[in-house]
Amino acid sequence: MQAHRLRREDGRTPGNFAEAAAHIFAVNVPAAHRVVAIDGPAASGKSSVARELAKQIGFDYVNSGAMYRAVTWHVLQHAISPGDGVSVARLLEASRIDCDLDEDGSRILIDGVDPAEHLREDRVNDEVSLVSSIPRVREILVAKMHAYASDRNVVMEGRDIGSVVFPETPYKFYIDASPEIRLRRRIAQGQRDRIAVRDRADSSRRASPLVVAEDAHVIDSSNLTVEGVVGEIIGRLKLKGMVI
Ligand code: CDP
């Protein structure tokens, strides 16, 4: 982490042992199983960045937040209380969850229904943090995330992709932005989303909280365009030995 910061500020390559080892590891990662992890708080710009990055480097785009949102919608449709972990887990174990890809990236179907148009509803915004704090929910969805990356290269965005889901990937990014700018972005999207409440819940939960992975490269997107952030990530991936 320190080495990364040094290089960014000085424009120099530190050349220490850890950095060199990371480089050797990175260039030897089998080409078919690479994961670029993009984590960060609500409305930090992760989705736009991850989608555009995936397009530019030819990887598949996986939105893990949409998976937690889809499951939350399913729970609400069944009138199960999001705080009732036992019933939520029982429902999911009895449901068929299919994850695949279309031209826009990852897609999730629950019992044959694609809830894409409901994922940004207020009630989903309000309950998703609670549902995603249930360990069994995470276990079920993390297995799906691993399956995505088992035979393809992916850019995956979320909260714990670099810290918990793919801790071994050398390509970890944490995108942040000031709370004011994040709130403004969400309002511009026409959404009522209490992002500060979600951030607090996501950061303080026991199961896989939102944290900056130790070896993640942090980017503050407050004053950057999507292209600017993607450019910084691609530069970083090249430095780590990825052939793009
Ligand atoms: O788009 P936005 O940043 O608002 O959120 P999202 O990525 O769609 O994620 C919605 C919610 O899902 C988050 O607030 C977390 O509670 C949960 N989530 C999670 O727990 N772990 C992930 N890897 C991704 C999302």
Architecture overview:
The structure is a single chain. By secondary structure, this protein is an alpha/beta fold. The protein has one domain (2-10, 24-239): 3-Layer(aba) Sandwich (Rossmann fold), CATH 3.40.50. 49% of the residues lie in helices and 15% in strands. A five-stranded parallel β-sheet has the order 2-5-1-6-7. It has a two-stranded antiparallel ribbon with strand order 3-4. Strand 3 and strand 4 form a beta hairpin. It starts with a helix and ends in a 5-residue tail after the last helix. Mean pLDDT is 89; it is low at 1-15 and 27-32. The structure holds cytidine-5'-diphosphate.
List keywords for this structure.
globular; 5-stranded parallel beta sheet; 15% strand; 244 residues; Rossmann fold; alpha/beta; disordered N terminus; two-stranded antiparallel sheet
Task: Produce a short descriptive summary.
The protein is of the alpha/beta class and 244 residues long. The chain has helices at 2-10, 17-28, 46-57, 64-77, 85-93, 122-131, 135-148, 161-165, 179-188, 195-204, 226-239, and strands at residues 35-39, 60-63, 97-102, 105-110, 154-158, 171-176, 217-220. The two termini are 23 Å apart.
